[in-house]
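Q: Convert this sequence to structure tokens.
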Amino acid sequence: MFRWRFSENGLLAYHNEQCIHKKSFVEEFTEKHHNRLINICLQVLSMTACPVKRGTFIEYRNGMLNISPIGRACNQDERDEFEKYDSIHNIRKKMISQIHELWKSYVKEEHLNHLPELNFSIGGQISIDIFPKGWDKTYCLQFIDDKYKEIHFFGDKTHKGGNDYEIYQDRLVIGHKVNTYQDTIKILEGLE
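A:
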């Protein structure tokens, strides 16, 4: 149905039915450093106070770690409540700062300047994403930047620090800020 498919920002890329690219977080950092990052995240999570905690706090994805202070096992009402709570208490922003500082100390103490720099972004209602610099949503553009006259992107977290920011701002993309899928449909109908 689609000529191009990009999972995890393009770290897993398909053209037609053929896999043309695959890259992983663990391969890039090695198991030793990946484990250290997980331990840092667990340390910060253990010190983070939330109204409720539900489980699955760290989710490994091929190109990133997704960290949720409330836990990905929460229900929709708990998601909504956490998002309101976080907008007041900046839980995720504080976590990003703490994880970033602990990781920088580890890299400095171990003389690991060869490791890729980490980026952090707030994703969705309940989590943060941690990934190597350059592995944001613009990563997929390298495969199609000369294939289309226009590339449109629709996202909700388009503010600086949001997980849609980099691609929304990219020179190759026409960015559209949306809040719901209905917004996307309305804009698409206007483009026809």
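The chain has a mean pLDDT of 93.
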